[in-house]
Design brief:
The complex is a heterodimer of chains A (250) and B (314).
Chain A lengths: L1 E10 L2 E11 L3 E6 L6 H8 L7 E6 L2 E2 L5 H4 L3 E4 L11 H7 L2 H4 L5 H13 L15 H14 L4 E5 L7 H17 L3 E5 L3 H7 L2 E6 L2 E6 L1 H4 L2 H8 L4 E5 L2 E5 L1
Chain B lengths: L1 H21 L6 H33 L11 H23 L2 H25 L5 H25 L2 H11 L8 H20 L1 H7 L4 H5 L4 H23 L5 H12 L5 H26 L6 H22 L1
Helix pairs in contact in B: 1-2, 1-12, 2-7, 2-10, 2-11, 2-12, 3-4, 3-5, 3-6, 3-10, 4-10, 7-10, 11-12, 11-13
């Protein structure tokens, strides 16, 4: 479990997060939602140790984040940033192979090769495994990077707005794939999402942030309502039920 | 495909080396070969050192335009040397052996550049154009300081200085060659050992952290390695601004691979070919007195302009 206790964070004198307390449950897909500038990415960066915590504690599996070495943490937690460079001349297969770096230190052994082959298959990348990243479409590239993070074989995977610049087909297929894989392999995925409908449609658990504070947490059914949208996003949108999942009419 | 390209590169280096050693030789062979062999070794060493320093720098800064010399590394070396001569005077300077002086310089450059560039690279959000500008400003600051101090010192000290502040490929200091070769060899060994880590560090700011390759520690180590390489090349031939850029651009073009296990050896080969081949053509075939530095700088400068303009329009 990821336990966040009393985390506050300032950037250039401005408070981005204010005394955040949050437990991210084990297993499944947790979506972080909220308006622009709510502090979602900052929170994710703190958990991934991209930013140093200024006050408060973050524990992963009961151990303080600062007590993990870089190498150990890389076997437990992976993060994929929002902006992924498109110009890297790396083949998809090599990129996924880099995901094994925490274990192989660059020399892929038979076990690493097996994992890479498996991940290429799970993410349907075999067809394009020899192509360079700079020749791929946005959706394929995002899929390749996600596959790399998946090959890291970590209990926790943090994704910062992976649906940016993806069309609806690529977005839906990525979310569905993540949901299935998380369930199959019992991993915990924390994902920052812009579009509340993707969170409502695929997440097991939603955490909403506003102005640096947690304002709601629970299952999509519990959380997503017209009142919630008014409070958190300050917009009057209708919410209907599609099957058992809530759906925001935009 | 890579294998074939490596074969051609090795072949090219052998051919230009043989031509360099033998073309237009007069008199005693043993003398010619010994004399030219030394020159050949130093050219390959310098070409390789500058190329690897450039590739390393581009790897940790995640760009393919900036080089250590554009960012003012070798200007800093000359500045340190100038200040040392200024403070000790020519007589004090003469007390030291060349090798001692070189090693002191190397340590000082390493300290100064690590201090300077860790601060500069700290802000990793920094955009490329700002880095280019900072580098150019730093470079001219160092050069202006050198000029200012040169005006303050007396002529005998000035002549000592002058020999280190201009690029020259035809006269290489034999005293320093051996210690340089050892240093560069050791540096290359360290770099080769960390080649997989370099592949990861090149991925950007976030992904190396995610993959457990601490970028801060990696950056520090790489800066130290670059300082050693730059010290060696600057001590041997003086500052060369654009050779590194010329070689690194050629390398990325010829070797489309992300792996430093491929890129670095190719860069060393291409660096050697450029210097040995260039010197051979200028000296032996065209019989020109034009220093190789001028030609290399001119070509490298054009590459720099081209890269900047293409980046600007993209």
């Amino acid at each position: 479990m990821i336990r966040i206790t009393d985390i506050s964070h300032q950037i250039a004198g401005q408070e981005i997060l204010h005394r955040v307390n949050l437990d991210i449950p084990q297993g499944g897909l947790t979506a972080l939602v909220g308006p622009n500038g709510a502090g979602k990415s900052t929170l994710l960066s703190l958990v991934a140790r991209l930013l140093k915590a200024q006050s408060g504690r973050i524990e992963i599996n009961g151990k303080d984040l600062s007590q993990y070495s870089h190498a150990d943490l890389a076997k437990l937690l992976a993060i994929l940033p929002q902006v992924l460079t498109s110009t890297h001349r790396i083949s998809v297969k090599d990129l996924v192979g880099f995901g094994r770096y925490p274990y192989s230190r660059g020399r892929l052994g038979p076990q690493d090769r097996k994992v890479v082959a498996q991940v290429l298959q799970s993410f349907e990348l075999q067809q394009i495994q020899d192509r360079f990243l700079d020749t791929l479409s946005g959706g394929q590239r995002q899929r390749a990077y996600t596959a790399m993070a998946w090959a890291q074989d970590t209990e926790y995977l943090l994704l910062d707005e992976p649906l940016n610049n993806l069309d609806i087909a690529a977005s839906r297929s990525l979310m569905a794939r993540l949901k299935t894989l998380a369930k199959q392999e019992q991993r915990t995925i924390v994902i920052v999402l812009h579009d509340i409908n993707y969170a409502a449609g695929y997440a097991d658990h939603i955490v909403a942030l506003k102005a640096g504070q947690i304002v709601a947490a629970g299952s999509p059914q519990e959380i997503v309502s017209e009142g919630f949208l008014r409070d958190v996003f300050e917009t009057d949108a209708k919410v209907v039920l599609a099957g058992e999942r809530p759906l925001v009419v935009v | 495909m890579l294998r074939r390209r490596f074969f051609w590169l090795v072949l090219a280096l052998i051919v230009v080396s043989v031509l360099f050693l033998t073309l237009g030789a007069k008199g005693s062979w043993s003398f010619t070969l010994w004399f030219r062999g030394q020159k050949l070794a130093s050219l390959v060493l310098i070409g390789g050192a500058i190329s690897t320093a450039t590739i390393l720098f581009q790897t940790i800064t995640h760009n393919r335009i900036l080089t250590p010399s554009i960012m003012g590394f070798d200007a800093l070396y000359v500045l340190i040397l100038t200040v040392m001569i200024f403070m000790m005077g020519a007589s004090g300077y003469a007390q030291f052996l060349k090798v001692e002086l070189f090693l002191i310089n190397l340590v000082l450059l390493t300290l100064a550049s690590v201090a300077l560039f860790t601060v500069l690279l700290k802000d990793q959000s920094s955009d490329l154009m700002r880095m280019v500008l900072t580098g150019i400003i730093l470079g001219s600051l160092f050069r202006s300081l050198v000029q200012m101090i040169q005006r303050l010192i007396d002529p005998s000290e000035f002549s000592v200085l002058q020999s280190v502040s201009f690029a020259r490929f035809n006269k290489v200091d034999a005293d320093l060659l051996l210690v340089s070769a050892v240093l560069v060899g050791l540096t290359w060994a360290v770099i080769w050992k960390m080649r997989h880590r370099l592949d990861i560090l090149a991925l950007g700011v976030v992904l190396p952290v995610s993959l457990g390759a601490d970028p801060n520690r990696g950056q520090l180590l790489v800066l130290v390695l670059i300082s050693i390489l730059v010290s060696v090349s600057t001590a041997l031939v003086g500052p060369v601004a654009f050779l590194g850029l010329l070689v690194s651009s050629l390398t990325y073009r010829l070797i489309p691979s992300w792996h430093h296990g491929h890129i670095l050896p190719a860069a060393i080969l291409i660096g050697g070919i450029t210097l040995v081949g260039g010197q051979m053509v200028l000296e032996r075939i065209l019989h020109l007195e034009t220093p190789l530095a001028v030609v290399v700088e001119c070509l490298g400068g054009l590459v720099f302009l081209f890269l900047i303009l293409r980046k600007g329009s993209a």
